[in-house]
Design brief:
The structure is a single chain. This protein is mainly β. It folds into two domains: 102 residues, Sandwich (Dex49a from penicillium minioluteum complex, domain 1), CATH 2.60.350.10; 323 residues, Single-stranded right-handed beta-helix, Pectin lyase-like (Pectate Lyase C-like, 3 Solenoid). Helices cover 0% and strands 50% of the residues. A hairpin with a 2-residue loop joins strand 7 and strand 8. The N and C termini lie far apart (46 Å).
Length: 440
């Protein structure tokens, strides 16, 4: 096992200590969750984990529940075993969550001596107001390294951002009106982002702006402030997002397409009015805090069409606020079609389950309204708590008779293990919606 030593000046947890296979692992702190990062090789399994909280635990649960990892309590600590690398949330009543990123060792790590590699030393914090990269360059953050600042790469190909290190957005001060996105990759074909952990953003966290062929893999995020979107796919196509753990205080993964000029960075042109096609989000864990939605398409969609968006094999730990688990907000002229949500497991949602709407809002830039058609929700499991009964609703609403929502197929939807037999069980309120079908 490889634990990492981080700078002492980085906030460390006062609530948890962690041992993996008897070896101490540093636990770091954010205001919404503490977290630990370690690399476990095949020979480290089965791995025994021991979490000791600041208060004696009366109970503990390891999430996602679909992992079926049983926790026991002995000698004031929580104990559980892993058979493989996992990204988990350990929940102990009365304490914030502890995120354990017990991941596989890096594959194909770059050579730090390669002139095309930009890297920073482990065990240190490096600050830079703005970092950019050139064609074919790799930004490598080794385990234990911390980079503070922001990244904006424009029109470069073959960009890779990788490593078990940490990108920290707290170089900027939101209270002072500084809320730039942490990482913007603009019109960068074939970009790869993998393995890093992102914390303390002041705004959006990772923006894929008009990119083709982007891959995001094994990204871990902990966003605290409102508008800390996780991954914004803006006017991009042929995008793969997989094996990520995203905690955000706004949309966890969102598809948009509009002119971002002056929206994120004053005076910076960023026109992303490109049609969106072929976006696949799979094998991810999403934890939405009080703002935004877990899986979102919209609001801003000032393009002709958005087509071929799939969310597959997703664990939603929670959507705590007024947002939804499944969300499509068409506030502009786009035709949104061929969207699939399948094999989704929901552990908690609060206000809305499904929210598909065509509307005119403060986010709209087009005069014409759009349409939504051919959306499938398949193999959905909702672990509904008693607090949801009669409260959590679903909204499916078109704009008028010419701007409608059509062909919504709900197939094999289960609540607390029982199949849904009638749309009323999902508390669906609808208008200008045609072809809503519930299939067994």
């Amino acid at each position: 096992m490889t634990p990492y030593t981080h700078p002492k000046s980085l906030p460390h947890s006062r609530e948890f200590s962690l041992r993996i296979n008897g070896q101490s692992v540093e636990v770091l702190h954010t205001d919404v969750a503490d977290f630990a990062i370690a690399a476990l090789a095949p020979e480290d399994f089965p791995a025994t984990l021991e979490v000791t909280p600041s208060l004696p635990p009366a109970a503990a649960t390891v999430h996602p529940l679909s992992k079926n990892i049983a926790a026991s309590i002995a000698d004031g600590a929580v104990h559980f075993t892993l058979d493989r690398p996992e990204k988990l949330s350990v929940a102990i009543p009365g304490l914030k969550a502890l995120y354990v990123f017990a991941q596989a060792p890096e594959t194909n790590p770059p050579d730090a001596n390669d002139p095309s590699v930009v890297t920073f030393p482990a065990g240190q914090i490096t600050e830079t107001p703005l970092l950019t990269l050139e064609d074919g360059q790799t930004l490598y953050l080794p385990g234990g390294a911390v980079l503070k600042g922001r990244i904006h790469v424009q029109g470069k190909s073959g960009i890779r951002i990788c490593g078990h290190g940490i990108f920290d957005g707290s170089f900027y001060d939101r209270a002072a009106g500084q809320s730039p996105p942490s990482i913007i990759l603009e019109r960068c074909p074939g970009v790869l982002v993998e393995d890093i952990t992102m914390v303390r953003p002041q705004g959006w966290m990772l923006v894929l702006a008009a990119c083709q062929g982007a891959t995001v893999r094994n990204l871990k995020e902990i966003g605290e402030v409102v508008s800390s979107d996780g991954i914004d796919v803006v006017g991009s196509f042929d995008v793969l997002i997989e094996d990520c753990f995203l905690h955000n205080n706004d949309d966890c993964v969102v598809v948009k397409a509009f002119d971002l000029t002056n929206k994120l960075l004053p005076g910076v042109p960023l026109d992303c009015r490109e049609n969106v096609e072929n976006v696949l989000v799979q094998h991810c864990t999403l934890a939405n805090w009080h703002a935004g939605n877990a899986m979102e398409i919209g609001h801003e969609l000032s393009v002709d069409h958005v087509c071929g968006v799939t969310f597959r094999n997703i664990d939603v730990l929670h959507t705590h606020g007024s947002g939804a688990v499944f969300s499509i907000h068409n506030n502009d002229r786009a035709l949104i079609e061929n969207v699939v949500f399948e094999n989704i497991r929901i552990e908690h949602c609060y206000d809305k389950l499904i929210d598909f709407r065509i509307s005119l809002s403060r986010y709209s830039t087009d005069k014409e309204r759009g349409r939504i058609r051919n959306v499938t929700l398949r193999n959905i499991e909702w672990n509904r708590t008693p607090f949801n009964l009669g409260y959590t609703i679903s909204l499916i609403g078109g704009w008028d008779a010419d701007h409608t929502i059509e062909d919504i197929h709900i197939e094999n939807f289960r609540i607390d293990g029982l199949p849904v037999r009638h749309p009323d069980e999902l508390e669906i309120c609808s208008r200008h919606c045609h072809g809503l079908r519930l299939l067994g």
